[in-house]
Amino acid sequence: MRLAEGIVIDEEKTFGELKFSALRREKFDTDAEGNRTGELKERTYDLKSKAAGQMIQVSIPGEVPLKEFELNTVVRLVNPVVDTVVSTNYRDADVSWYIKADDIVIMGADGNFAVTKPQGKQPDAKDKKAEQQK
């Protein structure tokens, strides 16, 4: 049994301040025979949650680049959702909770997502004009 869309949460009320800790694991797809393929399905990270008073694990899609933030960097989750997997047995049910997000980003000093600097040289107006003249 699963919740169709998961539980959309208010990140600030649920987790409080989140601090990056480490990559916990990478999960790869498997083929029909159960063999691991080379395709990365998701990465799970450990984050310190001030409101929970403990470490939480958050999974993000494998196509999102690897997060290598410094320890205790304040981060935010992009579109976090809490979901469950329930397995029933003869007398009761076991519930496993998990947290997924679209991404983990550094929080800026103003409380919003930090703007990351693009890597490599960005063309300036002079370069663009020269390119147009070619």
Main pleated sheet:
8 strands, mixed
By DSSP, the count of extended strands is: 8
| CATH class identity | Mainly Beta
Runs with pLDDT <50, length 5+?
Answer: 115-134
Estimated share of beta-strand residues: over 45%
What class, by secondary structure content?
Answer: mainly beta
- CATH architecture grouping: Beta Barrel
Strand order in the sheet with the most strands: 1-6-7-4-3-2-5-8
Shape: globular
Q: SSE order, as H and E?
A: EHEEEEEEEH
Summed up, the domain count is 1
Radius of gyration: 20 Å
Average per-residue pLDDT, rounded, comes to: 80
Distance between the termini: 61 Å
Which key phrases capture this entry?
single chain; 134 residues; mainly beta; OB fold (Dihydrolipoamide Acetyltransferase, E2P); eight-stranded mixed sheet; 2 helices; 10% helix; globular
